Queue: 3 jobs
Job 1
Amino acid sequence: MAANTDFIIQEVKNQRMNKIAVKGMAKFVSTVSVALFTLVTATQALAQGDAAAGAEKITVCLACHGQDGNMSQIANVPKIGGQNADYLLKQMNDIKSGVRAAPLMTGMLNNLNDQDMADVAAYYASQAAPQGAAEPEKVALGESLYRAGNADIGVAACSACHSPNGQGLASAGYPALSGQDPAYTELQLRAFRDGVRNNDDAEVMRSIAARLNDAEIAALASYLAGLR
């Protein structure tokens, strides 16, 4: 009798967890839809950049990002070569306006106007994307989360927004992630999870990262470094 009671209690718990997961996934889909509309609308209003002109305006960027955008060895500095131009431009606008906190970028954009920033974004977007390598022991978990998500905790596949090869979705402003320095990716996921970074439209990244533990974040960051 006790065994049957324990079984029933466990089944009730499982059903509750499934309902929570389903609600989480439904909320995620709805949130992404809103964010996608917001991003596409905002992208249409951004200045159009000129990569050739941008090549003459990157002096302020060289010390940290280098000529190709991928030379940084500092965890707080992302590799930006080959990154989607609209995403880069949004981040520069957010940093310049104070919406996104980025201490290392303080004052760096003050002398760049909207067209200058669009040109710089276009220049770095035209560069080759970075390439890295994943730690073998983290690939299984990282790949599972990236390609399939985890329905048990209401996390959808990262590839749904960032594409199967990690090149992002330029038309929606979703960034490329493949080849990124894992320390930087891990830092940003933690920042989203902890609410330190909050410039994601419709809280898409915050709602996802909030459900991930440290091991899952580390595995994702490592897997993305080696994704092609």
Job 2
Amino acid sequence: MMKPCRMHNGRVLKPKHTISDKKSFPFKSISHTNMKKIILLLVVFSSALLHSQEKNFIDKPYLEVQGKADTLVTPNRIYIDVLISEKDTKGKKSVEELESEMLSKLKSLGIDTEKNVTMQDMMSNYKKFFLKQTDIQKAKSYSILVYDAKSTAKVFIGLEEVGISNVRIDKLEHSEESKLQLLMNTKAMENAKANAVSFTKPLGQNIGKALFVSQNKNVAYRGNANQIRIRGQAPQELAFKTKAIEYNENIEFEKITISSEVITRFSLE
């Protein structure tokens, strides 16, 4: 509550500020200012600490080496995209008829149509087959999963026999890819350590703990998904007319390369 004004020699004297007068005691502004100072001090301190740690790291003798590891695996999950469209038969067969013939042919080839054949969303897949949106209503898209190159060739040839020509390989995978990648990471680190020892042993020195580790590359290279290889021959495009390879036991896909590359710094002792 404000104190009343007093008169002194004809002048009005204003009362002294009280604790309740917010203008006289700017607690909020002082708190905000202090907070800015605290934040600034923390930033400066953190920068100094990081610089000190970096300097300490640089001051330590260390050896930087590279480690690599890779392996080759044969794809055992092959995804085949199939488009059935009335355009394939120039309107002589409906999509439903083509679908029925496709499923019958796949069953005759030993494909589990309940488990390994799934319908795809045409709205998201029509561009892959260079279709116009106006043709979507007269077409269906499927994904077929097979497990080797021989089965893949049989699917391509079998679908051609029932008049389905829009067939392509979508992707190649290996069922143990994740585990193999972790194994390659381990082997790459082991390779880095072996490289470090090969440098330090002639000098009569030993390596200590790893001070720094960086993964430079982590790659699964799949090659050309639409090529098969007959052992001893050049790779060839997987096409319907390659019926000569239908029952060839030696056909295979180009292997998937799974690799890892690391950069490591070991302290010197």
Job 3
Amino acid sequence: MSELTQTRNERERAALNLEPYFRGESKIFRDKSWLQPSSDPPSRLPLGRDREVKALASSISDALQGGAGRNVFMFGKPGTGKTLCVHYVLDEARRYAEERSLAVFTVYVNAGRTRSPYYTMLEIVRAMGVAVPASGWQMARLKQVFEKTKGDKPIITAVDEVDALLLKQREPLIYYLNRQPNVTLILVSNRFEDTATLPERALSTLQPRLLMLEAYTAEEAKAILAERVEKAFRPGVLSEDLLNLVAEVSSKTGDIRDGFHILLSAGLQAERDGCSKLEPRHLEAAVKSETIIDWFKERLERARRLKRGF
């Protein structure tokens, strides 16, 4: 091998040095996990949802006084903060009860994961502190243990993605839970129409308070994205103008998670380009990779024209 070839190979090897990637070094990211849709917000607060959180807390308040609160049917499109609101209220209710030594059960179960009335009931009983095997019990036994463990104590039970149950079984489990003393139900779904599929007798006994979550406004989306940006990116990586743009598209699509995806993809693209800041072209590439709407591209082009003074 000639000296010239060897020198060229060394340069190419240096350009392809992967050690910084293996060590997790980045000019762009501090911790990209904050841009994962499944991650909790840094503040753990459901920003932009004060009204809905207070309405939910008001509905379940009687359960914390030893009785039954008002049932709630919470609905809204994906990415509007439904699950976050429920978790926050249940956590606060649990903390309130523990500080005052109140005997109140608080349970959250995702029916989209349990996928059946049996496994939904199993998770409810487990959340009450009962060691239940994954299989081998009949539904009748689960109900018996539920009733014995609960006794007269209040229980607040949130069933997320309740439509997964309603599609298979229109009412029996929900109807059964609602007929038990001192049970407060929080039913969460993406669609308001799911309430119409319940039989009349179930609706007449549930009498749920309807709580709709609209898409976040651009201002609300910006606040949500800003606290994640602070944790996910290094200082100065994302300008406020670009943050405003991502917040606007998140509000427009109605799903705050679109903003997370755009920021993560744009950051990865900037990292691949060896940049230390996000640029409009990185957001444009992220939009293409995430198949977001053409409207966002038009806004980017408009921003470019304004920057050039056209």
